[in-house]
Fold Methyltransferase domain-containing protein.
Amino acid sequence: MILQSVSFLILGLLRFAVDASQLDDILIQGNDALMEGNNQQAVLLYRKGIEEMKRQKGVSLLTTISLYTNLATALSSEGDNEAAALSYQQALTAYEDQNDSVSDIETKEEAKEIASQSSFFLGMVYQDLSQPKEAIEAYAVTHDRFDPNHWASYANKGSVFHDNFSNHEKALEAYNQAYTLLVGGHATEPPSEPRYILSQLQYRIGLCLSAREDRRCALQNEDGTTEAADCQEQAAHAFSLALQYDPSNVSAKHMLASLTADATMKRASNTYVKSLFDDYAVNFEHSLVKDLGYTGYELLRKGFDRAMLNVGETKPMQLVIDAGCGTGLVGEQFRNISTVLVGVDLSAAILEQAQHTRPGLYDDTRVGDVIATFDEFANQISLIIAGDSYIYFGDLLPLKRRSIG
């Protein structure tokens, strides 16, 4: 959950660094190129400015950190995140080396704002480089060293704690800080339409609360005192708030229904499942098999073989539907007893991953709801296989009725 893009950085810096020198001309030309999307030209100009700066004495702090920071932005836009990280670091080093020698209050504040942006975007670059520890450190520097009201640094730090380290306590603390800043009206650079961000923050707060195994959380009262409360109830409240901010947040709706056993929601919405596995497609199988040691797909085939042995059935299945087929872990186990094997999944991304990982496994694949496939092949289906996808269906009886016509 990276909440801000690098697109606003150059806009924030154009008003800085106005020394009457050739460096200003180079900086402005680089800024113009970057604004026009000519990133390569911007990189050349900023590097030219930095080389010129090294030959001069007494270059202002604003010019120095603007050149390094905007160079980093251009490099990141070109996909060179390692070089971008180095340039952001150089901007921060220049700030620390020169800031104490600056006496003008307005200049110090402007330099601090640039440094804050540099640190924040350094965190984002570290996330792109899959360096979560360094990303957390950069975000912490942003709000601890430069700007305590920088809501996005708290939000992004929370996402790293949650997504990369499963540290729900630290993530919850960071998400709550971001949320408090936004609703309190003190946030730096608040979004123009905050309700979508507030919805996502409450959704993620709910995820952190619902992950608590002991189910006991501290609830803060209006007078500042705390009392014990059930984490699941607090999580449900967070998901409910997420839906109040954004009724279309299907992930929050699904989680709220799961926690409250909402009988009106018989199955997970297609939008929720599609969104979940589109995001998860590339890492799905590695996470499931390598990280979690999952073997359910093998156990499913063993159970099927025992059942068939008990009834004395040995002939191949004419039409097998792999419902919620994912990357084909289950389908692969049943290929040798399937005359025709059809894989069905809501996520086009994960079906592409299946075709890449196991080319030719399925005779046909369908992107969409399994119900449509059941209706299409009613009275023709010999076997339906489903690994863990059945947990998203709720009551299985209606699906069974559809599949047998």
